[in-house]
Design brief:
- The protein has a single domain (2-265), classed as Spore Coat Polysaccharide Biosynthesis Protein SpsA, Chain A, CATH 3.90.550.
- It has helices spanning 24-31, 34-53, 72-81, 98-109, 132-141, 144-149, 245-255, 259-265, and strands at 2-8, 61-67, 88-93, 117-121, 127-128, 152-157, 159-166, 169-176, 184-188, 210-213, 219-222, 241-242.
- The chain has a seven-stranded mixed beta sheet with strand order 3-2-1-4-9-6-10, with helices on both faces. Strands 5-11-7-8-12 form a five-stranded mixed beta sheet.
- A hairpin with a 2-residue loop joins strand 7 and strand 8 (169-176).
- The chain contains eight helices and twelve strands.
- With 274 residues, it is of the alpha/beta class.
- This is Rhamnosyl transferase.
- Pfam families: Rhamno_transf (PF11316).
Length: 274
């Protein structure tokens, strides 16, 4: 069964953000501000890409949606980062309504609309375990009745970490949080054109049956100054603690995230307490 992941990399959508702007020009200026883009690239390289590149099941497609006005230096840097990631496809679009353009991108990537597929969403500062695609396929195979009887079925792997990289390595906190958007996937029946981006991640269980898995660490939710989800009024403070040697080894084994590489990429940035 085809597996498709979708990542929005600073795509200037009309809607789909916690932060609102008066015009699309203001949104583009906000998204492409040098300090913000540098932070996004550092997270993408240090946290997001390693686990994707190291998947135990490499039979998947990973779509990276960018704006068609992404400045060339940023576009070139992005292409360089995924040069050794054959599953990646960078797709540029002009600013459009968020859900329609994401649905179009996902459905265009389906090899055969007459076949079912699995889809997952992925933010550009999050990580999935190296076993995610394999576990997702296994989960779908374990649910033939649900897959037969429903157009859409959700799969939520809800155990993992919140983590923040800095020049000292990684600070993290364990969490079990359902329907958080990372390590969240959906099975789509043949000819169904709904995509995982048609549904708010925290509301997906209102529209389809979902199966949750809590038995293994499957994600890292990135924590940083430019998290769109942290720009609202009700933001919960997170108590992150620096990983010790055992924690660093667990992150490298589970997510392919190397703390040494994190320290290298974030060298020169402030080291956070504790």
């Amino acid at each position: 069964m085809q597996v498709i992941g979708l990542c929005r990399f600073s795509y200037p959508a009309l809607g789909g953000f916690q932060v609102e702007h008066d015009s699309i020009e203001d949104r583009i200026a906000y998204l492409y501000a040098p300090a913000r883009m540098e932070e996004r690239f550092r997270h993408f390289e240090a946290v997001t890409l390693p686990g994707l590149k190291a998947q135990t099941d490499g039979d998947f497609t990973f779509l990276i949606v960018v704006g068609d006005q992404l400045p060339k230096p940023h576009a070139d840097r992005l292409h360089d980062l995924v040069a050794d990631f054959p599953q990646a496809r960078i797709i540029a679009h002009p600013p459009r309504e968020h859900r329609p353009v994401m649905a179009e991108v996902l459905n265009d990537a389906r090899q055969d609309l007459g076949q079912p597929c699995l889809q997952f969403r992925h933010d550009d500062d999050d990580a999935i375990a190296v076993s995610f695609v394999q576990r997702l396929r296994e989960a779908a195979a374990d649910c033939p009745g649900l897959m037969r009887d429903h157009r859409l079925v959700g799969f939520d792997f809800n155990r993992g970490f919140i983590a923040r990289p800095d020049s000292g390595g990684l600070l993290a906190q364990e969490t079990v949080t359902p329907y958080w958007g990372v390590a969240l996937a959906m099975a789509v029946k043949p000819w169904a054109r709904h995509t995982i981006m048609n549904f708010g991640h925290n509301r997906i269980n209102r529209f389809m049956p979902t199966v949750t898995f809590t038995h293994e660490d499957m994600f890292v939710r990135g924590h940083n100054d430019h998290n769109d989800s942290r720009q609202g009024r009700k933001v919960t403070k997170v108590d992150l603690r620096r990983l010790d040697g055992a924690g660093e080894r667990h992150f490298e084994t589970t997510f392919a995230i190397s703390s040494d590489r994190v320290r290298e990429i974030f060298a020169g940035t402030p080291r956070l307490a504790p």
